[in-house]
Specification:
heterodimer; A: 449 residues; alpha+beta; Beta-Lactamase; Helix Hairpins; 4 domains; 5-stranded mixed beta sheet; 13 helices; B: 245 residues; alpha/beta; 5-stranded parallel beta sheet; 5-stranded antiparallel beta sheet; 40% helix
């Protein structure tokens, strides 16, 4: 039965919403009429208090017009019709106390919110006679008319039943819609968002999203799954291609290199070895840029100061002038190889374009700032964005020939690594000349254990 | 320095080259021959086994990408019952390849395309290390001293708070050499011979500079070193207690 219902259930959010409205309307009508029937069956006469009061006024009018004999006749007839009427002194009527309690209060509020449509008899009010609700109205200056056994509850009156319908429908639609929006729209979307996380975690993850729920949600999940699969295939294909190219190239390149070493003409040999070195580094750089496992490096506690010192030592040993300024130790949670890679790229650039470079490290509880400053020509400010693009080079052709060129990947890799650490890479031209590459990493420094 | 090397290589070191590309094999043999080494070439695992049955070698140069049995598999097999130093020739310079190579027992690796000079330097270094008795024997992969941890395969060092400390190649080689010989006074010449750094690249950097940098990183007070002590006229000694595993 439930299964059949589930099959009949519309699969789109729009269909479900239409169904929901229909269900709500039917439910309101059904439950409303049920309620109505239930209250009618309980034997309580549903009476409009205004009508009752008006009727009292009419009788008072008749009584005043009929004279003393007619009064008795009218009262008798009324009693025969089930109306419990009595004539009392006005003083007696005035002495009767007004009803208290919730019903009376609600009644008063109603009569204020919905003022009676009919003319009300003079001085009519609800009172208590023998602890039961009654209605009095002035008959003439010395006498008052009392109508006993007035229906008690507000809820059973005609006036309130439309209100029940309104309340019921509003509540019904409200509850149903909230539940619908939550369970059918918000919750699945939130689930998808949670399992996606950031772009990186989405791409890194291999568990497909659940393809469940409304058709729109299923379509969304399916499209995202396909998107991820396709990106994976693309990346894998690209990496595989590069790896196999580089692998297949390496054997002939080894041959070339060993052959070149045997060339007796020293100038020619030097040039060939230089070019071979270029090709090799170019392949390595491209492969490195397209590596898919860079983000897989685990995050661990590492001493950033020692990394930068090591870098300085390596560059100094290679004959460059790179100095370190900063604390002797600064431990942070990071991906150490990534950071080393990024800093090595920045230093490469610094010594390529300048004569000397300074690495400066500073940090507080919230962030770590690493600066690499060189004394080179700097980068024109309008290029600062573009130099981060892969394969972009400011000085395209010439640098390759002189053999000092990079492959336009160094800064892209730096940018990628820094972003992966939720950090920011900024390039700043020094007014005195030279370029400063500043990396700000929002790292919470772990307390030493 | 060259004279010293030549002295160590007498009688001529015998090297087996396992390489499927005949031209690379031939040129390698020539290059090593010029350096006074004797070479044989095998084009794969089968040929290698045949040659190993007939004679012994001081070192094996092993290409990773071989048709048939792969270099990695051959290396693992060789390590099971031999301590001959092995240098892997890899086509992919990935960290993973290096770690895998060292974990299965290779002593060193060279990435294609390499220069013959680089390969010769690596072979010499390896022969010298095995001459000092450090290579070939199963070298400890993890060493601990004073809360510090050294992972020789990944070439990583962690301090007592388990934070990774970065060292240069030379610094690492020195620290590793000290840890293999704790408490012993080691001369600068010995240290130079025990490390790669004496050969590749910064040849002229004096050992003292590397030692001083290493102290900056591992000593609590580098000006008053406790672990890495200088021994007057002798060299250096490492005072910490080292556990190998």
């Amino acid at each position: 039965m439930i299964a059949r219902f589930a099959r009949l259930r519309p699969s789109t959010i729009r269909g479900q919403m239409i169904l929901l409205i229909l269900v709500a309307v039917v439910a309101v009508v059904q439950i409303g009429s049920l309620l109505e029937r239930a209250t009618r069956n309980s034997g309580v006469t549903i009476t409009n208090p205004d009508l009752v009061t008006a009727r009292l006024g009419t009788i008072a009018l008749l009584l005043r017009a009929s004279g003393p004999e007619g009064e008795a006749e009218i009262l008798r007839s009324a009693a025969a019709a089930g109306l419990d009427l009595a004539i009392v002194d006005k003083a007696t009527a005035d002495a009767l106390s007004a009803p208290t309690g919730l019903n009376a209060a609600v009644g008063r509020v109603f009569s204020r919110v919905f003022p009676p449509d009919l003319d009300m008899p003079a001085n009519s009010r609800h009172v208590l006679v023998d602890n039961r609700l009654a209605l009095t109205a002035d008959l003439d200056p010395s006498r008052a008319l009392i109508f006993r056994n007035v229906p008690e509850t507000v809820l059973t009156t005609d006036m309130t039943s439309p209100l029940i319908y309104q309340l019921l429908s509003v509540a019904m639609l409200g509850i149903l819609f909230s539940a619908f929006i939550y369970f059918v729209v918000t919750a699945p979307l939130r689930r998808i968002a949670a399992s996606l996380g950031s772009v990186d975690t989405f791409l890194a993850g291999d568990r497909p999203l659940d393809e469940q729920g409304s058709r729109e949600i299923v379509d969304l999940s399916r499209t995202l799954n396909e998107l991820r699969d396709r990106i994976h295939t693309l990346i894998q294909g690209r990496t595989r291609m590069l790896r196999s190219i580089s692998h297949d190239l390496r054997t002939p390149m080894t041959r070339l290199r060993l052959r070149a070493e045997r060339i007796s003409d020293q100038g020619l040999r030097q040039q060939m070895l230089l070019d071979l070195g270029h090709i090799d580094r170019m392949i390595a750089a491209a492969l490195d840029y397209f590596r898919t496992d860079r983000h897989c490096e685990p995050t661990e506690r590492a001493d950033i100061a020692s990394m930068l010192q090591t870098l300085c030592s390596d560059f100094c040993d290679a004959g460059h002038s790179v100095t370190y300024e900063g604390p002797g130790r600064l431990i942070a949670l990071c991906q150490p190889d990534g950071i080393i890679r990024a800093m090595a790229n920045l230093c490469d650039n610094a010594v390529k374009f300048g004569a000397a470079a300074v690495i400066r490290l500073s940090g507080d509880q919230r962030q770590i700032v690493i600066e690499v400053r060189d004394d080179g020509p700097g980068i024109p400010p309008d290029m600062h964005e573009r130099v981060l693009e892969p394969f972009f080079r400011i000085d395209n052709a010439r640098a390759i020939d002189t053999g000092t060129a990079g492959y336009g990947l160094g800064l892209s890799i730096v940018d990628e690594i820094v972003r992966h650490h939720d950090g920011v890479l900024a390039l700043v031209n020094d007014p005195r000349g030279g370029l400063t590459a500043r990396i700000v990493l929002p790292i919470t420094r772990p307390a030493a254990t | 320095m060259p004279s010293e090397d030549r002295r160590q290589n007498t009688p001529a070191a015998r090297i087996l080259i396992v390489e499927d590309d005949p031209e690379i094999g031939r040129m390698l043999a020539e290059a090593l021959g010029e350096q006074g080494m004797e070479t044989d070439i095998a084009d794969g695992g089968v040929e290698m086994d045949r040659r190993l049955m007939r004679s012994t070698y001081d070192a094996i140069i092993l290409d990773v990408m071989l048709p048939g049995e792969s270099g990695i598999s051959i290396c693992r097999r060789l390590r099971a019952d031999s301590t001959t130093p092995i240098i892997l020739l890899t086509a992919l310079g990935d960290e993973v390849d290096r770690v895998v190579g060292l974990e299965i027992g290779a002593d060193d690796y060279v990435t294609k395309p390499f220069s013959s000079r680089e390969l010769v330097a690596r072979i010499r270094s390896l022969l010298r290390r095995s001459g000092y008795g450090a290579a070939s024997k199963q070298r400890p992969r993890t060493l601990r001293f004073d809360g510090w941890r050294i992972d020789a395969t990944r070439r990583q060092v962690h301090d007592p708070s388990n934070a990774r400390i970065s060292l240069t190649t030379a610094e690492f080689d020195l620290l590793y050499a000290f840890c293999l010989n704790p408490g012993r006074v080691i001369s600068r010449e010995e240290l130079l011979a025990m490390t790669h750094s004496g050969l590749a690249g910064p040849i002229d950097r004096s050992i003292d500079v590397h030692i001083s940098r290493l102290r900056q990183k591992i000593e609590t007070d580098p000006k008053a070193p406790e672990m890495l002590r200088t021994v007057r006229l002798g060299g250096y000694t490492f005072t910490a207690t080292v556990e190998a595993s």
